[in-house]
């Protein structure tokens, strides 16, 4: 049995990366990371650090006052020279820039996330009275355009599962591996479509997390909180079939991970993404189906059946029901339109009078 769980190991790796990046940031940033440690996850802090590193490198390369300064020795007094215009220039810079001859491009969504990191940092500095004004407060976040929900329709979902099970349409090379991977792949896809689990939650599952007596399993949510999800008999059958196949491999006797790769190690997020893309390209070549889209498919089906946004939010693990409402707003409109057709204002107009 491994000494550390997948999530514990992931946290250690995030903390190691965070420590390395913090050594490249202004020394005064340490106060911020210490201050937010109790209510943020290591992955969140790593995201902040990564975004701040890009920002400070931009300052010393592109902004006259900061040009040539040592990032590590920047002080709060230097922040007083920051203007909202500099932040807007940074957002423009993110569209296309180079680091060590490698080109980077950022979408509007990524720009918005990086701006959010700056807002969190400079708001903290301002509230701690380290700076006299917040240079980011008046900068508007980029407008995010709502994208249509991409999901599998009922018939596509059935065909998708059939293709995973049969291997129909796979390339000759992929078909050669299908015999060994079929039960695993069916279990993974069925779990996505049957529970709405996140890809990180799925990858982190251990065999001991599954309880077939109650058709439930334990997951670790974003932020590290644990939760219990339940599954139906279709998911149960797929999991049992995979575990029976898995048990035939003696090299996995000491491996706690539920899902493993051909190398007999815990399957990676990247491998799961490739797996889903492989089968999706056969079933729905015009739709870009990802593990998250399978999660969306589950959420759509659950919302259509229950018509309860709070149930969907709870099962999907959304902390804010508005996040759920935003994703399923279009479906809400369809439900409201459908409801309007169910009310007959003259229900007895074709019936004979009782009088």
Question: Can you give a write-up of this model?
Answer:
A three-stranded antiparallel beta sheet has the order 3-4-5, with no helix packed on it. Strands 1-2 form a two-stranded antiparallel sheet. The radius of gyration is 25 Å and the shape is globular. The protein has helices at 6-22, 29-35, 42-62, 76-79, 84-93, 108-127, 154-166, 172-195, 199-203, 233-246, 269-283, 291-306, 309-316, 321-327, 329-340; strands at 97-99, 102-104, 210-211, 216-220, 226-230. 24% of the residues are buried. The model has no long low-confidence stretch (mean pLDDT 90). Helix 1 (6-22) packs parallel to helix 3 and helix 8 packs parallel to helix 12 (291-306). The protein folds into two domains: 6-127, no CATH class; 154-340, Orthogonal Bundle (hpI Integrase, Chain A). The protein has 355 residues and is mostly helical. It is 54% helix and 5% strand.
Please outline the helices and strands.
Elements: H1 6-22, H2 29-35, H3 42-62, H4 76-79, H5 84-93, E1 97-99, E2 102-104, H6 108-127, H7 154-166, H8 172-195, H9 199-203, E3 210-211, E4 216-220, E5 226-230, H10 233-246, H11 269-283, H12 291-306, H13 309-316, H14 321-327, H15 329-340
Antiparallel strand pairs: 1-2, 3-4, 4-5
Assign an overall shape: globular
Secondary structure tally: strands: 5
Helices and strands, in order, run as: HHHHHEEHHHHEEEHHHHHH
Span of the ends, CA to CA: 80 Å
